[in-house]
Write a structure and sequence with these properties.
heterodimer; A: mainly alpha; B: 167 residues; mainly alpha
């Protein structure tokens, strides 16, 4: 385990930042190109996870536990958000029999 | 060296799974690939010796949240590839804008010098014992408030999910 957990010495911070931004950008693409509301939700979860990973990386590299506590709270908020969001999605499906976001354009213009 | 290889392996698995979430046609495949992405990110957390966050990530994200997604997919009977796609021009524009975010931040990263890591040895801050001490001393008020947040989320979900009298 000694060799595995010594990642701070081996992997530079830049590589972690680039990886997390790439993951975040994939989530952005998912939100922009998908019409299925469920997949849009999943893309949002992916973006949240990329940010979580970056917070943990900075917290470990600077030896500050506050970053990891913040990740814990982000996960709490994400869980609450998913519970509400999926309830809304079921409600939308019950009314329109579809979860296509293009149907939900009453507030768009 | 093995640490570096593990970093690259986990990174490529997560990028691959994240791309497959967008590529796959059926929502249920997207959910399963997202579970794979979450597990590889948990692998990253274990590499960083953030054990508590790794376990919470597996339990909350890969466990609870993704089961909720799977449950919704099956409840709404969405497992049909209904070709809900936007026109090609929108896809191209979305790809270009996301690539511009990536290029901008990576380019900004080139110009700055990030501070060198403070920790000389292996950090112990991610262990359950140390993180629990911080959570229950410095962050006790946000922790209690998040319990109220969960209660309100639960009540809201029940209110939204319950059928009204006229239906």
């Amino acid at each position: 385990m000694e060799s595995i957990s010594n990642i701070v010495q081996y992997v530079p911070l830049q590589q972690y930042v680039i990886f997390c931004i790439a993951l975040f950008c994939i989530g952005v693409v998912g939100v922009l190109i998908k019409r299925n509301a469920l997949v849009i939700f999943m893309s949002i979860e992916m973006m949240l996870n990329a940010v979580n990973l970056l917070l943990v990386v900075f917290s470990v590299y600077h030896n500050d536990p506050a970053g990891q506590v913040f990740v814990f709270f982000v996960m709490l908020v994400a869980a609450a958000e998913v519970a509400i969001g999926l309830a809304l999605l079921v409600l939308v499906y019950r009314h329109t029999h579809s979860i296509d976001v293009n149907f939900l354009n009453k507030l768009k213009w | 060296m093995m640490t570096q290889y593990l970093f690259y392996i986990f990174s490529s698995i997560s990028i691959f799974a994240a791309l497959m979430v967008l590529i796959s046609k059926k929502p249920i495949h997207s959910v399963l690939y997202l579970v794979l992405a979450f597990f590889s990110i948990s692998g990253h957390f274990i590499l960083l010796n953030a054990q508590f966050i790794a376990i919470v990530n597996i339990i909350v994200y890969a466990g609870a949240i993704m089961v909720l997604f799977l449950f919704t997919v099956m409840l709404l009977n969405l497992n049909i590839s209904t070709e809900l796609t936007k026109p090609r021009i929108i896809k191209v524009i979305a790809g270009i804008s996301a690539a511009m975010i990536l290029i901008t931040i990576v380019g900004a990263l080139k110009g700055i010098s990030l501070a060198p890591p403070d920790s000389a040895g292996i950090t112990q801050i991610g262990l359950v014992k140390n993180l629990g001490k911080v959570l229950f001393s410095d962050f006790i008020l946000p922790f209690e408030v998040s319990a109220v947040l969960f209660l309100s989320a639960m009540i809201g979900a029940v209110m939204l999910g319950k059928k009204t009298a006229d239906e």
